[in-house]
Structures are given as C-alpha cells and as structure tokens.
Amino acid sequence: MSKKDKNRKWVWWFLAAIVLSQLYFVRELLAAFALFLLVFAVLGSVIAAVYLFQKVWEAGVFRLFASRSPWVLALRRTVSGVEELVRRPLRRPGSEPTSA
Question: Among residues 1, 28, 34, 78, which one has the fewest Cβ atoms lying within 10 Å of its Cβ?
Fold first, then answer.
C-alpha cells in the first residue's frame, strides 16, 4: 500500500509541475504579447504623427501659396528671379572654352 501512495504522490507532483510550467509559459506569452503590443502601439503612434504632420504641412503650404500677402508675393518674385539666374549659362554664348 505504501508503494502505491508514493507513486501517486510522484504522479501528483509531476502533474503539478506540468500545470505550473504551463502557467509560467502562458505568463511569458502574455508578457511577450504585451511587449509586442507596446512596440506596435508606439510605431503606430509615430506613423500617425508623421502622417498628421505631413498633412498639416501640406495644408499650410497650400494656404501660403494661395495667400496674396505682400511678403508672399515678394518671396515668389525672389524665387522666380533665382530660378531665372540658374537657367542662364555660365559663359556667354559663342565664347571659347578655357584651356588649362
């Protein structure tokens, strides 16, 4: 009778160890899930913030270009003048290239 009781005791210890290891495994999985959830939430927030910033910037630039403020008109003339200077050739047409 004593041998049976010892075997039962070890079987119960073995079953308890399996249950506890499974609970530990579930705890670890939940912790990993929580970490992944946190990382994805941070990444999602960063992406949403960048998207929102881009849309606000786009709306601001559109309103700036639609504006008829004297400052904006002067800025446009300046940018147009710089673009015209960039398009000009560096040498006069028909001049000889410099030889070194």
Answer: 1
